[in-house]
Structure formats: structure tokens, C-alpha cells
């Protein structure tokens, strides 16, 4: 099950905890992976660890031109582009009343607009192949909200809606578009939350623990597989039960 | 019929799965040949590849019929 031999996958934010785990899972299932991220050194490390079938494709997602070029670079490096995992994301948390236009815009740009641009950029190869998988990593806060993250919640909820629209447009071409919404996962990003935020979130998790990046990667692997062909426009919530939608 | 028209017709026939004699000068991709809006985007992509040209979005919108496509490509190629 979930054999991705011969498939090519581009993963953004592959230098991060969840992105790295996703890249490993897809690679482990046989896919050729393109590792994208802002910081090249950790990508090179990951590529070295994976060995064959791994390509490093650095990209600054707040740079519109670089984002436009990324799908083409991925196709050149890997010979195709069957699977896109939009995982990269940033946070610029602040109380709503104090949130600057800049913090709002940068989070929307990287988390929503770059996802839009990458989805648009991979349409051509996927439409031609009559096969494609897009998995957008959203967040539990897209549905649940979170104080201090008005910008991030808006961006992630935006990705959810956008994914459903795109899913309807391209379903007849064998392309699925889904989201995975992680809950509280132990990564560098969640380390930035303060103790009060962590305590409040942890108390609300029926599973009684934080999730691991590998548990997100498993959900992505499923949605990227041939077996998930009939799943589209869906969000798979992987959150230990903290928000049951 | 010109070489360009032949090549365009071949793409249309293959992509939309229609009979060749249905692809007339005035045949509308959507109204007469059963294309949906996504099909028209794919046709434009196929034309771009076949003829090595770029068809901008605003021009693509004006290509409604087989005749429109042949005319546009003849001028661009």
C-alpha cells in the first residue's frame, strides 16, 4: 500500500520538522523528492541523509518570482511533478489590536499567496499527466482560531477554502487537492509559543500529548497515494482530538 | 486547408474526442464541440506546445471557435 515508486514530489518547508518528516515519508514510499526551503544547509543535510532520489531546491516563498520559478525547477530536476506538498509557513504572532499591517501581510504572503502560486504553477504538468496530488498543510487554528494568531488563522482558513475551489475545478482530471490540519505538533514553530499558550492547548488535547511530525507525514502520505484517488477537497485533522470537526 | 489548420484540428479531435467533420471554421469549442472551460485551457496549452508560442490569457479568451484558433496561431507562429 501507498507505493509512490516513479512519482515525483515537491515539499516546501522541508527544512522544518513537519516538512522534513513528510519528505522522508514520501521518499520512503519510493518517490523522488524535491526539498524546498529558505535555508539551504538543512536541506542539503536532509538530501544527504536520504541519498538517491533527493534534490535540493532552495526558494524564498516571500519572493514572488522565485515562487513562480520553483515548479519549473522541480520539473527540470526530477523530470516531472506529480505531488505538491505546501508545508512551508511562518508565524508573526501578536494580539489583534497590536498587529501591524506588515505582520498581517507577511503571513498572508507566505502562507496563502505562495500556496496559491505554487498550486497554479503545478497545474500544467499535472493536467497533462491526468494525475496529481496537492496536499496543503493547514492547521487546527484554521477552524478553531487561536488568540494572537489572527493573521495565521486567516491564512490557513484561506488555504482551506482555496483548496476546495481548486479541488472542484480539477477533480475530473485526476488531480486531488486536500489539506492536512495538524494540531499541536512538537517542532521549532510550536517551541515559540509561550508556556501559557502551551499549557492551555495541552489541557484541551484528549490524547494528552503533543503530536509527532511523523504522524502528520503519515496523513500526507495517504493523501498523496493512488489509494486516495477518491478523496478530494477534504481536510484530514490530525490533532489528537483537540478539535473534532 | 493549411498545415496549421490541420495540426490544430488534430489537437481538437484528439483532445475533445469529436468527429473530424464536426470541427468546422465556425465550430465553437464550448457550444458545438462539448468542451468545458477547463478543456479550453488545456487546448490553449496544447496549441502553445505544438506551435512553440505563448498565448496570453487575454488572447486565449478570444479564441472561441476552431477558426479563431487557426487565425490566432497563423498570426503568432
UniProtKB/TrEMBL annotation, chain A:
PROSITE patterns: ADH_SHORT
Family: Belongs to the short-chain dehydrogenases/reductases (SDR) family.
E.C. code: 1.1.1.100
Cited function: Catalyzes the NADPH-dependent reduction of beta-ketoacyl-ACP substrates to beta-hydroxyacyl-ACP products, the first reductive step in the elongation cycle of fatty acid biosynthesis.
Taxonomic path: Bacteria, Pseudomonadati, Pseudomonadota, Alphaproteobacteria, Rhodobacterales
Pfam families: adh_short_C2 (PF13561)
Alphabetized UniProt keyword annotations: Fatty acid biosynthesis, Fatty acid metabolism, Lipid biosynthesis, Lipid metabolism, NADP, Oxidoreductase
Catalytic activity from the UniProt record: a (3R)-hydroxyacyl-[ACP] + NADP(+) = a 3-oxoacyl-[ACP] + NADPH + H(+)
Superkingdom as given in the UniProt entry: Bacteria
Ketoreductase domain sequence ranges: 7-188
GO molecular function: 3-oxoacyl-[acyl-carrier-protein] reductase (NADPH) activity
Pathway field: Lipid metabolism; fatty acid biosynthesis
SUPFAM superfamilies: NAD(P)-binding Rossmann-fold domains
Protein name per the record: 3-oxoacyl-[acyl-carrier-protein] reductase
Subunit description: Homotetramer.
From TrEMBL, chain B:
Gene Ontology BP terms: Kdo2-lipid A biosynthetic process; lipid A biosynthetic process
PTM annotation (O-(pantetheine 4'-phosphoryl)serine): residues: 37
GO molecular function terms listed in the Swiss-Prot or TrEMBL record: acyl binding; acyl carrier activity; phosphopantetheine binding
Keywords annotated in UniProt: Cytoplasm, Fatty acid biosynthesis, Fatty acid metabolism, Lipid biosynthesis, Lipid metabolism, Phosphopantetheine, Phosphoprotein
Domain Carrier: 2-77
General function of this protein: Carrier of the growing fatty acid chain in fatty acid biosynthesis.
Protein name: Acyl carrier protein
Organism this protein belongs to: Albidovulum aquaemixtae
Highest classification ranks of the organism: Bacteria, Pseudomonadati, Pseudomonadota, Alphaproteobacteria, Rhodobacterales
Amino acid at each position: 500500500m501507498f507505493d509512490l515508486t516513479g512519482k515525483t514530489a515537491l515539499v516546501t518547508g522541508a527544512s522544518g520538522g513537519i516538512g522534513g518528516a513528510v519528505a522522508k515519508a514520501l521518499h520512503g514510499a519510493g518517490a523522488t523528492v524535491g526539498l524546498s526551503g529558505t535555508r539551504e544547509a538543512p536541506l542539503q543535510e536532509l538530501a544527504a541523509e536520504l541519498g538517491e532520489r533527493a534534490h535540493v531546491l532552495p526558494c524564498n516563498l516571500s519572493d514572488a518570482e522565485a515562487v513562480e520559478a520553483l515548479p519549473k525547477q522541480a520539473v527540470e530536476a526530477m523530470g516531472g511533478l506529480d505531488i505538491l506538498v505546501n508545508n512551508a509557513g511562518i508565524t508573526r504572532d501578536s494580539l489583534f489590536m497590536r498587529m501591524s499591517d506588515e505582520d498581517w501581510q507577511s503571513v498572508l504572503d507566505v502562507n496563502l499567496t505562495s500556496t496559491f502560486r505554487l498550486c497554479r504553477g503545478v497545474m500544467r504538468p499535472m493536467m497533462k499527466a491526468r494525475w496529481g496530488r496537492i496536499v496543503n498543510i493547514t492547521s487546527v487554528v484554521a477552524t478553531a482560531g487561536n488568540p494572537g494568531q489572527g493573521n495565521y488563522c486567516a491564512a490557513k482558513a484561506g488555504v482551506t477554502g482555496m483548496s476546495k475551489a481548486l479541488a472542484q475545478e480539477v477533480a475530473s482530471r485526476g488531480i486531488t487537492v486536500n489539506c492536512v490540519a495538524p494540531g499541536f505538533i512538537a517542532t521549532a514553530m510550536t517551541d515559540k509559543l509561550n508556556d501559557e499558550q502551551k499549557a492551555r492547548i495541552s489541557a484541551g488535547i484528549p490524547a494528552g500529548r503533543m503530536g509527532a511530525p511523523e504522524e502528520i507525514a503519515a496523513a500526507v502520505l495517504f493523501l498523496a497515494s493512488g489509494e486516495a484517488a477518491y478523496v478530494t477537497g477534504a481536510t484530514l485533522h490530525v490533532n489528537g482530538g483537540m478539535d473534532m470537526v | 486547408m493549411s498545415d496549421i489548420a490541420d495540426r490544430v484540428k488534430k489537437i481538437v479531435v484528439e483532445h475533445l474526442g469529436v468527429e473530424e467533420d464536426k470541427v468546422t471554421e465556425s465550430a465553437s469549442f464550448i457550444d458545438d464541440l462539448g468542451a468545458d472551460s477547463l478543456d479550453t485551457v488545456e487546448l490553449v496549452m496544447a496549441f502553445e506546445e505544438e506551435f512553440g508560442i505563448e498565448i496570453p490569457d487575454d488572447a486565449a479568451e478570444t479564441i472561441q471557435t476552431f477558426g479563431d484558433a487557426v487565425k490566432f496561431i497563423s498570426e503568432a507562429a
